């Protein structure tokens, strides 16, 4: 029986070149190829059937691993995408700023509006403070003697600019500025004319006509090269050396008549004295004219057509006229220099000055 089986298996192996056993181990017989012996083929079919679920499991694992591997790179990308989306806002505002670049100027103007309004408020406050300082300085200049004013401005030179800034703003509202009238008059004078501008401020006459005329400009302080700082009751000019002397709104201080006497000293015989003063300062215009005539001036004319100021024209009389009064005035000046002037004399001088010209005190606003 054994031999029959062996011969039978050999014959079957010959009829099937792949062999029954090789098929079972190599490729696994399909259900069609499982029709072989009871023992060998039966065991082969059982092994292949057992191997198939393992391979299916392995295939499923491999597929799951592939799926997981495909999903792993995606899952970290998903949290990164919102991060990238979070980082993208920086370019978005850049794009928005570029898009809004055309509208940027108005936004800048709107932002710059608050500081500009603040600066305007500050400027208003500065103007008010400057106005208050101007009124205070102005009152000092009209109620003190000129030597005290010189001392004040020498100690605080910035006060000179504060005063003249305020004075300029006051005169700008007038229909006409008397200094311009004097400049137009002096333009017609010959180049040999010598002019003394007493209380010149910033020296507008000299700045305008210094190439045409010889002009000496004096005031309490020197804001520029045209102006000499001094007390105009005593200017550094020789006797009878000037053709025209001008007081343009500058008869200030309780001793303003000392300025008039100084003008008489420096003027040549026949020299001109031209005065412009605020009309509200004159209690009595005729009395003022008479007082200047007593010094030695001859009254020529006055012009009160302007509602803000009056213009006066005087001429210096001969040197012999009123010599006794002039000598008395010089004695009074020497007493002042020696410091022997009494308080009563100062008080009488102040009262006399106010009787001729009232202080020009600006009202507080």
UniProtKB/TrEMBL annotation:
<dbReference type="GO" id="GO:0006325">
    <property type="term" value="P:chromatin organization"/>
</dbReference>
<keyword id="KW-0156">Chromatin regulator</keyword>
<protein>
    <recommendedName>
        <fullName>Ribosomal RNA-processing protein 8</fullName>
        <ecNumber>2.1.1.-</ecNumber>
    </recommendedName>
</protein>
<dbReference type="InterPro" id="IPR007823">
    <property type="entry name" value="RRP8"/>
</dbReference>
<keyword id="KW-0678">Repressor</keyword>
<keyword id="KW-0489">Methyltransferase</keyword>
<feature type="compositionally biased region" description="Basic and acidic residues">
    <location>
        <begin position="338"/>
        <end position="352"/>
    </location>
</feature>
<dbReference type="GO" id="GO:0042273">
    <property type="term" value="P:ribosomal large subunit biogenesis"/>
</dbReference>
<keyword id="KW-0539">Nucleus</keyword>
<feature type="compositionally biased region" description="Basic residues">
    <location>
        <begin position="328"/>
        <end position="337"/>
    </location>
</feature>
<feature type="region of interest" description="Disordered">
    <location>
        <begin position="320"/>
        <end position="352"/>
    </location>
</feature>
<comment type="similarity">
    <text>Belongs to the methyltransferase superfamily. RRP8 family.</text>
</comment>
<dbReference type="Pfam" id="PF05148">
    <property type="entry name" value="Methyltransf_8"/>
</dbReference>
<dbReference type="GO" id="GO:0016433">
    <property type="term" value="F:rRNA (adenine) methyltransferase activity"/>
</dbReference>
<dbReference type="InterPro" id="IPR042036">
    <property type="entry name" value="RRP8_N"/>
</dbReference>
<keyword id="KW-0808">Transferase</keyword>
<keyword id="KW-0805">Transcription regulation</keyword>
<keyword id="KW-0698">rRNA processing</keyword>
<keyword id="KW-0804">Transcription</keyword>
<feature type="region of interest" description="Disordered">
    <location>
        <begin position="1"/>
        <end position="124"/>
    </location>
</feature>
<keyword id="KW-0949">S-adenosyl-L-methionine</keyword>
<feature type="compositionally biased region" description="Low complexity">
    <location>
        <begin position="65"/>
        <end position="84"/>
    </location>
</feature>
<comment type="function">
    <text>S-adenosyl-L-methionine-dependent methyltransferase that specifically methylates the N(1) position of adenine in helix 25.1 in 25S rRNA. Required both for ribosomal 40S and 60S subunits biogenesis. Required for efficient pre-rRNA cleavage at site A2.</text>
</comment>
<dbReference type="GO" id="GO:0005730">
    <property type="term" value="C:nucleolus"/>
</dbReference>
<feature type="compositionally biased region" description="Polar residues">
    <location>
        <begin position="40"/>
        <end position="51"/>
    </location>
</feature>
<feature type="compositionally biased region" description="Low complexity">
    <location>
        <begin position="94"/>
        <end position="106"/>
    </location>
</feature>
<dbReference type="InterPro" id="IPR029063">
    <property type="entry name" value="SAM-dependent_MTases_sf"/>
</dbReference>
């Amino acid at each position: 029986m054994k031999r029959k089986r062996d011969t039978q298996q050999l014959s079957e192996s010959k009829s099937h070149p792949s062999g029954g056993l090789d098929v079972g181990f190599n490729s696994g017989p399909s259900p069609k190829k499982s029709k072989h012996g009871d023992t060998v083929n039966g065991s082969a079919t059982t092994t292949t059937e057992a191997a198939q679920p393992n391979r299916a499991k392995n295939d499923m694992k491999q597929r799951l691993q592939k799926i997981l591997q495909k999903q792993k790179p995606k899952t970290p990308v998903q949290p990164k995408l919102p991060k990238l989306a979070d980082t993208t806002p920086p370019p978005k505002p850049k794009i928005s700023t570029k898009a809004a670049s055309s509208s940027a100027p108005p936004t800048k103007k709107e932002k710059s509006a608050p500081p500009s309004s603040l600066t305007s408020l500050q400027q208003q406050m500065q103007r008010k403070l400057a106005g208050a300082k101007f009124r205070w300085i102005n009152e000092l200049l009209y109620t003190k003697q000129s030597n005290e004013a010189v001392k004040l401005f020498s100690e605080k030179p910035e006060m000179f600019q504060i005063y003249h800034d305020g004075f300029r703003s006051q005169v700008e509202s007038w229909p006409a500025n008397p200094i311009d009238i004097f400049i137009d008059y002096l333009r017609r004078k010959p180049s040999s004319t010598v002019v003394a501008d007493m209380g010149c401020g910033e020296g507008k006459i000299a700045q305008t006509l210094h190439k045409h005329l010889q002009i000496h400009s004096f005031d309490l302080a020197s804001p520029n090269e045209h102006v000499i700082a001094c007390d105009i009751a005593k200017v550094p000019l020789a006797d009878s050396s000037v053709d025209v002397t001008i007081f343009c709104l500058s008869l200030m201080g309780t001793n303003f008549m000392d300025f008039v006497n100084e003008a008489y000293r420096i003027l040549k015989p026949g020299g001109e004295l031209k005065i412009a003063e605020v009309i509200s300062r004159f209690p009595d215009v005729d009395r003022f004219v008479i007082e200047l005539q007593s010094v030695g001036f001859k009254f020529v004319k006055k012009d009160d057509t302007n509602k803000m100021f009056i213009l006066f024209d005087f001429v210096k009389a001969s040197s012999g006229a009123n010599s006794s009064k002039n000598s008395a005035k010089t004695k009074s000046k020497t007493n002042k220099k020696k410091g022997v002037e009494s308080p009563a004399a100062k008080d009488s001088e102040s009262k006399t000055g106010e009787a001729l010209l009232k202080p020009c005190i600006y009202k507080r606003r």
